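User: Show me a protein chain along with its predicted structure.
Assistant: Here is one chain, sequence first, then structure tokens.
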Amino acid sequence: MSAQHAWVGDLVRDGDGRRSIVTDVHVGRTVWVLRPPTGGGPHWETDDPDSLELLTRSEARDSW
């Protein structure tokens, strides 16, 4: 994992301007799975982590 890339649990803004939570990173760390920050809702993916603007790191990551 690159320090500058968003990771699971982080709040981000995607390339379309949507606020979202990273829920998973898979397939050799080449697909980031996103969902809305509240509620269920649809999930979507990006293969371009540089398109994700990190808004807030996951609280769980703060303790690593």
